[in-house]
Inverse folding.
């Protein structure tokens, strides 16, 4: 299958937005604008890699926003958007280069999975394709706020991103157009003689330009993800002699280990069941049966990433998870922060959306006797409603 890399352009200073913080690093409904844009592509099944073009002066803000997502090193942008994209493409031209590239402005954080899919599929029969919105308002040209003419809106579209191309073609086009100061990549492609197709964009795929846009985007997020679902998961593992135990992705030195077919991470197993439960998609055993030897000793983080992909494919997002460990030992408190960070990384959400707690059973039952360890998880998911 052809490979496709998403190139997220985030090198601007956001001068029209105002203030000292570039707009791509402002928070939108609990997460930065840049993070939302990156996650939309990072979670998408048709995207193989994500690279971000940034202003090097913003590196600390970039690391704070997406540093936990294990992205490749960011690319240094230029003084204009066109120069930043060109630099990004040149960086991608190093082997192995992608077959296709999808260029997206970080300031469009509401891009949806369906639009990404449609733009990518358009490349199966076109040299280039962009997401765009058909204009429905009457257009006026004015001089000093006095109308001089009415513009025929027939066949007029408002260009959005992502804009996707076969990689070699758009790289050649950008090299030829260097210094021309064009405002989008479709214009660069057109200048080279390339035919570019239009894909209808989700109308909510707005660009954040001024502070009022943040409020509108926040309202759209609340409206679009009004289908709120909750799932619960529970898991138990027997404890046997060993030298460490894995809980929520963190290895803890211990005189016992959890017995299981995979790495027996009871916290992550409960979490996977909770997410699957919220989707009505069965349980962990139906997706990763213990009778299948390919899962023997497998890192349970693999299972988490699989269900995160399922949520993304359905157009949803993970709003919050709450995991409770039930055991007499080991003590969870000293490792809670590391567990929280690891779970947030696997779910690709902010650590503020992850809660990890522990309790004992007052030495009652199998957990109280140290025979086993249990975990309960609750996951809250939001889908378009």
């Amino acid at each position: 299958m052809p490979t496709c890399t998403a190139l997220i352009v985030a090198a601007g200073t956001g001068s029209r937005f105002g203030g000292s913080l570039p707009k791509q690093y402002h928070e939108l409904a609990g997460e930065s604008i840049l993070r939302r844009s990156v996650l939309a592509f990072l979670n998408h099944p048709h995207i193989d890699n994500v690279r971000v073009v940034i202003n090097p002066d913003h590196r600390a803000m970039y690391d704070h926003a997406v540093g936990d997502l294990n992205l490749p090193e960011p690319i240094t942008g230029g003084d204009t958007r066109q120069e930043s994209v060109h630099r990004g493409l040149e960086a991608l031209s190093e082997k192995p280069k992608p077959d296709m590239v999808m260029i997206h402005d970080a300031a469009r954080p509401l891009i949806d999975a369906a639009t990404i899919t449609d733009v990518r599929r358009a490349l199966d029969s076109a040299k280039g394709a962009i997401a765009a919105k058909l204009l429905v308002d009457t257009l006026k040209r004015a001089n000093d706020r006095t109308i001089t003419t009415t513009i025929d809106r027939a066949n007029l579209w408002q260009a959005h991103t992502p804009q996707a191309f076969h990689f070699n073609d758009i790289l050649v086009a950008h090299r030829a157009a260097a210094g021309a100061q064009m405002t989008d990549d479709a214009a660069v492609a057109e200048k080279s003689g390339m035919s570019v197709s239009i894909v209808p964009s989700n109308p909510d795929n707005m660009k954040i330009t001024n502070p009022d846009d943040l409020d509108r985007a926040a309202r759209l997020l609340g409206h679009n993800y009004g289908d709120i679902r909750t799932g619960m998961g529970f898991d138990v593992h027997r404890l046997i002699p060993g030298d460490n135990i894995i809980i929520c992705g963190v290895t803890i030195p211990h005189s016992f280990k959890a017995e299981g077919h995979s790495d027996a991470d009871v916290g992550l197993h409960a979490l996977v069941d909770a997410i699957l439960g919220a989707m009505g998609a069965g349980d962990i055993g139906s997706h990763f049966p213990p009778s299948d030897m390919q899962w023997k000793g497998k890192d349970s983080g693999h299972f988490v990433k699989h269900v995160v992909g399922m949520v993304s494919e359905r157009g949803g997002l993970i709003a919050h998870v709450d995991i409770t460990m039930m055991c007499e030992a080991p003590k969870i408190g000293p490792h809670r922060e590391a567990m929280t960070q690891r779970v947030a990384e696997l779910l690709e959400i902010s650590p503020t959306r992850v809660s990890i707690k522990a309790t004992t059973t007052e030495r009652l039952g199998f957990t109280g006797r140290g025979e086993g360890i249990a975990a309960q998880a609750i996951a809250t998911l939001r889908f378009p409603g």
In short: The radius of gyration is 24 Å.
